[in-house]
Amino acid sequence: QLAGLAVIAFGLWLRFGGVMADFASDKRSPEYFFMGLYVLVGTGALMSTVGFFGCCGAARESQCLIGSFFACLLVIFAAEVTAGVFAFIGKKVAIQEAQKIYEDIYDDYMKNPAGKVNSTIYHYHSTLQCCGKGNTEQQMGLPCPENIQKASNCLVEIQNIIDANLHLVGIVGIAIAGTTIFGMIFSMVLCCAIRNTRNMI
C-alpha cells in the first residue's frame, strides 16, 4: 500500500509539479510522455488497492484472498515489464513530440513576434534555461531569459529533461518490480504456512 501511494505521489509530481508540467501549460503538450505518467499513477492506485486486500487476507488467514493477492501481483509485475519496454521504445517518440511542440511555437513567433506566442516562447526559455535552436542567428530577436549566462539549444535541453525524467521513472519502476517480487514470495510463504497450520490442526 505504501509503495502504491508513493508511486501515485511520484507520478502526480512529475505531471503537475516537475519541470515537465510546464509543457502542459500550452494547449499542445507531449501526450505520449504524459500517457506514461497516467499509467504510472494507475499502477500505483492498483497496487494500493491490491495491498489493502492482501492485508485483509493476511488478517483473516484466508488462502483464497492471499492467492488472489498473489495473482494480482503477478499481473501487476507483467504490466510493469510491459510498460518498461514500452517506455524504452517510446522514449525517442516522446522527445520528438516535445521538440516538435517547441519548433511550432518558434515558427509561430518568427511569423508574428508581437502575438500571444511571445509570452509562450519566453515561458519555455525560462523553464528550460535555453534560447532558440542552437546558433547565434536563431537566438537574435528571441525573448531569452536575462539571468542565463550562455543560451543553450532548447531542442537539446528538451531531450535532456525527458531523458532525466524517464530515468527517474525507470528507477521507480525497478523499485516497484522488486517490491512486487518480494510481495509474491511472502504471500506464497504465508499461504503455505496457513495451509500447513490447518493440516496440523
Automatic annotation (TrEMBL):
Q: One GO term of the cellular component aspect? A: plasma membrane
List the InterPro entries hit by this protein, alphabetically.
Tetraspanin/Peripherin (IPR018499), Tetraspanin_animals (IPR000301), Tetraspanin_CS (IPR018503), Tetraspanin_EC2_sf (IPR008952)
Q: What is the protein's membrane topology class?
A: Multi-pass membrane protein
The residues forming the signal peptide are 1-21
Q: What is this protein called?
A: Tetraspanin
Q: Which domain of life is it from?
A: Eukaryota
Q: Spell out the family assignment given in the record's similarity comment.
A: Belongs to the tetraspanin (TM4SF) family.
Which UniProt keywords are listed? Glycoprotein, Membrane, Signal, Transmembrane, Transmembrane helix
Q: Where in the cell is it found?
A: Membrane
Which sequence ranges form a coiled-coil region, renumbered to this chain? none
Q: Which residue windows are transmembrane per the record? A: 37-59, 66-89, 168-194
Q: What is its main location?
A: membrane
Instruction: State the encoding gene.
Output: Tspan2
Question: Pfam family example for this protein?
Answer: Tetraspanin
Q: What does this protein do?
A: May play a role in signalling in oligodendrocytes in the early stages of their terminal differentiation into myelin-forming glia and may also function in stabilizing the mature sheath.
